[in-house]
Write a structure and sequence with these properties.
- The structure is a single chain.
- It contains 12 helices and 18 strands.
- By secondary structure, the chain is of the alpha/beta class.
- The protein has 2 domains: 1-190; 267-431.
- The protein has a 14-stranded parallel sheet, sandwiched between helices. It has a two-stranded parallel ribbon with strand order 4-6. Strands 14-15 form a two-stranded antiparallel sheet.
- Strand 8, helix 7 and strand 9 (221-229) form a beta-alpha-beta unit.
- Helix 4 (56-65) packs parallel to helix 5.
- It is globular.
């Protein structure tokens, strides 16, 4: 018996194609006819755009055969860098002419287009009531949207999503739909995860505080992700505070000054994990690190090619980080210099006007994971671990690392591995 349980939109496209109900229904006409009488089977379906698109007639069948069931709809394309697809926007519009009358049944709507300009904008093209919608993801490969200050939604525009928990939008769409024109209407109180992707310098200035004010009525965020947003300074008084709490903060291709300002405006009491992916220090890092998130229990770095950038983010905590777990993946910037910094106290300056102090980076760290970083040797890692152990045994305030995992990095020297395996309680080193 075949049981269709839905698709993970973030998995590989080939997996989605295999999981889609059309895969089984296409075995033969008899199967297709039999399955057409099973509404639950068609409550999750995939619509393909681009090469070999799903016919509109097929979408009508999906909607009809699903009867009154809650819908999980995926509109996807296979990425082809050579394909321009000038008709994508028109095709998406045709698809939504069929989907919009069924908005009240939407439980999940996930779209992945080539261009951000092809996506429907909430409260502009997406209007109506979606009382059951839990996840809305409007994603893209190429961000070509430009914000127009004079572009206003229709007077009666509304997109009611009272149960929405997860949303991913372009920065331009988020500003247009939720921030500028309808500030009196807030997002769902139940929203837990928000991802904003893409807002470059060619657009009018977009202020971080405006984003935070708009989402602050939400009870508590699981994850806030800011990806490639070029935001303007908020120009607020330092004493002003925006009541916003998030368990996880995910920064992708973000500037250190923006991240520091978020901390200054909101605080960091509830942060559990902070992830930095290919982020950059401020324009003038010589002025010293501004205060970043120091209260997170886990700190993760992805794709840092520069040791200087990696060091700036590590030291911008002021040396008072409560981090217990440190994670590095695909960071060419993780070299001997960084490990030496982890092996001794370093001078840090958490806030302007404070005297520099000397402290260990991540002095409470007990778990260290390194994946796909190839610019260090086992001796560098051993030096850091050994120095932290000596401080711990000497009744210092540095915790010793108890869990170590190294994967896809350098081959360890036998003497280094012998020491690591002897002193680290749980240690593994994989090729």
């Amino acid at each position: 018996m075949y049981v269709y349980g839905g698709c993970d939109p973030d998995c590989d496209h080939s997996d989605l194609e295999l999981l889609a109900p059309e895969c089984l229904a296409s075995v033969c006409t008899t199967w297709r006819e039999a399955l057409s009488y099973v509404p639950d089977f068609w409550a999750h379906f995939v619509v393909w755009i681009g090469r070999n698109p799903t016919p509109l007639s097929r979408i009508r069948e999906y909607l009809s055969w699903s009867a009154d069931r809650p819908l999980h709809v995926y509109v996807l394309r296979r990425y082809d860098p050579l394909l321009q697809d000038d008709s994508e926007k028109a095709r998406v519009a045709e698809i939504f002419q069929l989907l919009l009358p069924h908005m009240e049944r939407w439980r999940l709507l996930y779209i992945r287009c080539l261009r951000s300009s092809s996506l429907p904008c909430p409260r502009v093209e997406l209007c109506g009531s979606a009382p059951s919608l839990r996840r809305l993801s409007l994603t893209f490969f190429i961000d070509d949207l430009v914000y127009e200050l004079d572009a206003a939604p229709p007077a009666d525009a509304s997109f009611d999503t009272p149960t929405l928990r997860t949303m991913s939008l372009s920065g331009v769409h988020f500003r247009r739909a939720y921030v500028d024109h309808l500030p009196e209407d807030h997002l769902s109180f139940h929203l837990k995860d928000l991802s904003l992707v893409g807002y470059d310098a060619q657009n009018p200035p977009f202020i971080l505080a405006d984003i935070l004010r708009y989402i602050s009525p939400c009870s508590f965020f699981g994850t806030l992700k800011l990806d490639a947003l070029e935001l303007a300074p908020s120009k607020l008084h330092p004493a002003e505070h925006i009541n916003f709490f998030s368990g996880n903060l995910d920064f992708v291709s973000m500037n250190g000054d923006v991240i520091a300002e978020l901390v200054a405006l909101t605080g960091e009491d509830a942060v559990v994990c902070v992830t930095y992916t290919d982020c950059t220090p401020p324009s003038h890092p010589e002025t010293g690190p501004r205060r970043l998130i120091a209260g997170a229990e886990k700190l993760a770095f992805y794709g840092f090619s520069s040791a200087d950038a990696l060091m700036w983010f590590l030291m911008a905590t002021g040396g008072h980080m409560s981090c217990k777990e440190l994670y590095f993946q695909d960071c060419d910037g993780l070299n001997a210099e960084v490990f030496r910094a982890l092996a001794r106290p370093v001078l840090s300056q958490a806030n302007a006007g404070r005297e520099p102090d000397s402290a260990w980076i991540c002095h409470l760290m007990r778990k260290l994971t390194v994946v796909g970083c190839t610019r260090f040797c086992s001796a560098d890692l051993r030096e850091a671990l050994e120095a932290r152990l000596e401080n711990h045994e000497g009744e210092g305030d540095v915790a010793c690392v108890k869990r170590l995992s190294v994967t896809g990095c350098c081959k360890p020297d036998s003497r280094d591995w012998s020491w690591i395996d002897g002193y680290v309680r749980h240690a593994e080193w994989k090729d």
